[in-house]
Design goal:
Layout (H helix, E strand, L loop, with lengths): L13 H15 L8 H15 L4 H8 L5 H10 L11 H11 L13 E5 L6 H16 L5 E7 L2 H9 L1 E2 L1 H5 L4 H7 E5 L7 E7 L1 H4 L2 E5 L12 E6 L8 H13 L1 E9 L12 E6 L2 E6 L7
Parallel strand pairs: 1-2, 1-7, 2-6, 7-8
Antiparallel strand pairs: 3-5, 4-5, 8-10, 9-10
Helix pairs in contact: 2-4
Length: about 300
């Protein structure tokens, strides 16, 4: 029987995958559990192909001399989870539209824009969903303006978000036909404008007021803020407890007193922060920043 040697090995050992998982956790705080190593190895295989490296084993060997440049960018970019859709968790968006945005302090003649931050904007469906709500809100508050900051670590998904281009499948996930016709237009072939490509483009009207920025939530937040509403959904579930507390404390400092923090449906601030009051709004849960911060 022919013994297997290193040149015939095509899969990484758990220890080798852990090397990459530890690197990702150090840089982004994202934790890969052992039962998700298969997912990370699949992404490493994609990176090896992109870099022209023969196999994931060769990629691991390359990593032993340092991870930098395009290698680092691809590794950290592809390690993020970009699953999203328009109006994901409809009950939450209904609560924002019908219960939060109608609060008197969000209307009136305030000369400052209503400021909203989407911390992990991914490919843009979340920020455009919020923008659709704010366009309806603006009809009731014509003297007020609004602005969005949309951030993500991945430049790849930020580029798609800013471009605002979506497939037929993506556009149908969460958007009724009336919204599609109101805020999106079918993309046309450049060589034959009479023929649609099957993709949809966000209108310039909906894009107005949105600023895109790369931001690692473990890095310095710089001059970001202040905001009335912050959406940080499905981010904390991938972080350890220390990073969760750190991220929430930084967000709290950038929310105005009484401002709202919105987390994912499976996330909670229990044991993480005393700076917020939990509010149950119909079937949705949001967190309202207290007047005085308790963090240090």
């Amino acid at each position: 029987m022919k013994l297997q040697n290193e040149s015939t090995v095509t899969a990484l050992s758990p220890e080798q995958i852990k090397f990459f998982a530890d690197y990702i956790e150090q840089k982004l705080g994202i934790i890969y559990a052992k039962d998700n190593y298969y997912q990370l190895e699949r992404r490493l295989s994609d990176i090896a192909t992109t870099l022209g490296v023969g196999s994931v084993i060769e990629l691991w060997t390359k990593a032993q001399t340092g991870i930098s440049g395009q290698f680092q960018s691809l590794l950290l970019d592809l390690s993020t989870n970009n699953e999203t859709s328009f109006f994901r968790d409809p009950g939450l968006f209904k609560a924002i539209e019908e219960r939060i945005l109608v609060e008197p302090r969000f209307g009136g003649d305030n000369p400052l824009p209503l400021r909203i931050w989407c911390c992990a904007t991914s490919t843009g469906q979340e920020v455009y969903s919020m923008a659709i709500l704010l366009h309806a809100w603006k009809l009731q508050n014509p003297r007020r303006s609004f602005s969005f900051l949309a951030t993500d670590y991945s430049l790849r998904v930020l580029k798609q978000a800013e471009e605002g281009k979506y497939s037929q499948l993506e556009i149908q996930r969460g958007l009724p036909e009336a919204m599609i016709n109101r805020f999106f237009k079918p993309e046309k072939h450049a060589s034959n404008p009479a023929v649609a490509t099957g993709s949809w483009i966000v209108t310039e009207e909906l894009k107005k007021g949105i600023t895109y920025k790369q931001q690692n939530l473990l890095d310095d937040f710089g001059g970001i803020g202040p905001f009335e509403i912050v959406l940080c959904r499905n981010v904390l579930i991938y972080q350890n407890v220390e990073n969760k507390r750190r991220i929430i404390a930084e967000i709290a400092r950038r929310l105005v007193p009484g401002g709202y923090l919105v987390l994912g449906a499976a996330e909670s601030l229990m044991g993480l922060s005393e700076d917020f009051e939990m509010r149950q709004i119909d079937r949705a849960v949001v967190y309202q920043r207290k007047q005085d911060l308790k963090t240090r």
